[in-house]
Amino acid sequence: MGKNMIDELMRQITEKNAPVVVGLDPMPAFVPEALINRAIEEKGETLEAAAEAVWQFNKAIVDAVFDLIPAVKPQIAMYEQFGVPGVAAFAKTVEYCKEKGLVVIGDVKRGDIGSTSAAYAAGHLGTVTVGGKKLRGFAEDFITVNPYLGTDGVKPFVDVCREENKGIFVLVKTSNPSSGEFQDRLIDGRPLYEIVGEKVNEWGGDCIGACGYSAVGAVVGATWPEQGRVLRKLMPKACILVPGYGAQGGKASDLTDYFNSDGLGAIVNSSRGIIAAYKQEKYAAFGPEHFAEASRQAVIDMLADINSVR
Amino acid sequence: MGKNMIDELMRQITEKNAPVVVGLDPMPAFVPEALINRAIEEKGETLEAAAEAVWQFNKAIVDAVFDLIPAVKPQIAMYEQFGVPGVAAFAKTVEYCKEKGLVVIGDVKRGDIGSTSAAYAAGHLGTVTVGGKKLRGFAEDFITVNPYLGTDGVKPFVDVCREENKGIFVLVKTSNPSSGEFQDRLIDGRPLYEIVGEKVNEWGGDCIGACGYSAVGAVVGATWPEQGRVLRKLMPKACILVPGYGAQGGKASDLTDYFNSDGLGAIVNSSRGIIAAYKQEKYAAFGPEHFAEASRQAVIDMLADINSVR
Question: pLDDT tens for residues A121-155?
Fold first, then answer.
């Protein structure tokens, strides 16, 4: 069994002074044409070519930014859309990031009835047994989990986290515009996301790391600062994974209350703001051929921005 | 563009007199040892061996039952746990079932913010573009979708359904014991699952097939007959996918009100009750070497049971 990953995440955040995570969500529109064309020349107009372009894109960005950041968050949908070759590129990206010493948060948003959640947990965080061997399907350090099915859909993930010293982030209040449609509905006068937040606190109660934070964290969008403030207090031991900064509209000044007074307790994600930085006017001078250097500069700028508020 | 799949599903249900779906959820404990050992002999103690055993298991069952049933529902977690080779076995199973003329419901329970749901929708129900070609990642006819993120997390799936003549089943009231933890909480005096059910009715309003049912269906567990009755009326045009029959405790007599007065409108899933039938005392005489024949008999018995109540 490896390090306790919530401790490792907090250690790297502190050491690199960087409570940020880079979202490796390689939408086709973000990948420079030259990479796509080269992959198509080699492999034809195939899913394999798309997967190869995605992998080359990720590798260049990771090589350019890994020393600045504690963690990456590949969004599996962006790989899964390219079928089996895409999923293989996801697995390769996870492995490569771990080799570079990064904490890997698989943004998979899985969640099902107990026996099925147990299979997802084994596949993404734990091991499966084949004959006499224990093998790993995928090998993220953390994954995101959807709570709609309740405790018995989440518990199998928590159990594997405890066995493997890994962690999860449970969706509580998501960053998207219509997240309030169900999540904000009042139950006994309190919004559903608070009820879910209380459960997160409970689920994570007996897997608190040496760092003081739990292996069971929460997803709370940067786009909801007032809700973030309430949830921070409801889940004092949860690390909050914060999507929605940048492209989705969340600003650093909105994020002050997502952090605890120790300046820790939150990790802010940026995906397109970093990986597609070369497409922004601000970084256009790098040009598409230097997309990875543009990403590095975007990380440096994001760090300054986020660190100004905590 | 192919047939309208909700029409095709209803056509096959009527023609085969079989409102049932077989859940291809090949948990390792269900796969006969002989199949596992043969795969390990060929491929060693590897993920590839596990995936091969799963594929051989599925193929034998599909060959034994395809003429009796309209649809299968592979649960992707049971494949995903074996990593990339497992996901390849999922893709192969989907393809094979389609070749056999079956409607394939991918039980993937995906759902995310809009742009991410769009990628899942493209990968499972639609196409991705590589160079000048449109390619399919996976190729299910229907998938299951988690609604926790609200309309903008579900809409991309509905849009692709309309373009591709495919369909989804949205989780409304799940079959697991703790489904009520969030789903039953009262909002303005009504449980959350009813609020979600109303949205399902709304999301599916403009993709009603010639059969009278919508491409947007709902998941309602067999374990909640009273809730099923209410939801049937709230979502008159939705086909209800009903898990939880058999092993999870749902009985045929609980299911009467999941069907509309036309005897249609619901499709009842059984997974382990069919694919692991050879492990039940009732079918033990078949022996593990005739597991697929045991599955066929279990389908015949399930059909008689379900058809007795509609």
Answer: 999 999 999 999 999 999 999 999 999 999 999 99
B121 domain residue, yes or no: yes
For residue B109, which of B135, B71, B140 has the smallest C-alpha distance? B140
Min distance B132 CA to chain A CA atoms (Å) = 7
Out of B109, B134, B166, B199, pick the active-site residue.
B109
Q: Residues B37, B286: contact at Cβ < 8 Å? A: no
Looking at residue A115, its amino acid is: S
Q: Return the residue matching tokens 């997803």.
A: A219
pLDDT value at residue B154: 98
| CB-based contact A136 B199, cutoff 8 Å | no
**How many distinct structural domains can be found in chain A?**
1
CB contact under 8 A, B36 and A131: yes
On the CB side of A53, CA atoms within 13 Å amount to: 29
Cβ distance of B130 and A182 shorter than 8 Å: no
Q: Across the strands, what pairs with A241?
A: A219, A267
Residue A168 to residue B296: CA distance in whole angstroms? 40
- Whether the CB-CB separation of B130 and B154 falls below 8 Å is answered with no
Expressed as residue numbers, the domain containing B183 is 5-305
pLDDT value at position B310? 86
pLDDT in tens, A36-51: 999 999 999 999 999 9
- A104 alpha-carbon distance from chain centroid: 7
What are the structure tokens assigned to A123, written together?
């596949």
CATH classification of the domain holding A285: 3.20.20.70
Angle of helix A47-65 relative to helix A33-43, nearest 10 degrees? Answer: 140
Evaluate whether residue B297 is within a structural domain. Answer: yes
Q: Which residue has the tokens 């609604």?
A: B147
Q: Work out how many CB contacts closer than 8 A connect A with B.
A: 230
* pLDDT value for A1: 58
A217 Cα distance to chain centroid? 11
B47 touches B82 (CB < 8 A): yes
Q: And the tokens for B260? A: 């509309």
Structure token digits, residue A21:
């995570």
- State the best of A146, A155, A195, A202 to mutate against chain B, taking most chain B CBs within 10 Å: A146
Q: What is the Cα–Cα distance from A177 to A23, expressed in whole angstroms?
A: 19
Measured between alpha carbons, how far is residue A83 from residues A251, B121, B188 in Å?
Answer: 35, 12, 43
pLDDT greater than 70 at residue B1: no
**Would B282 be classed as within a structural domain?**
yes
The residues with which A104 forms a beta bridge, in sequence order, are: A72
Kindly report the nearest CA distance between residue B83 and chain A, in angstroms.
Answer: 4
B43 is catalytic: no
B280, B248 Cβ separation under 8 angstroms:
no
Q: What is the CA radius of gyration of chain B?
A: 19
Cα separation, B88 vs A80, in Å, equals 12
Q: Are B87 and B106 in contact (CB under 8 A)?
A: no
pLDDT tens per residue, range A219-233: 999 999 999 999 999
Q: What ipTM, to 2 d.p.?
A: 0.98
Q: Tell me the mean pLDDT in the region B138-158.
A: 98
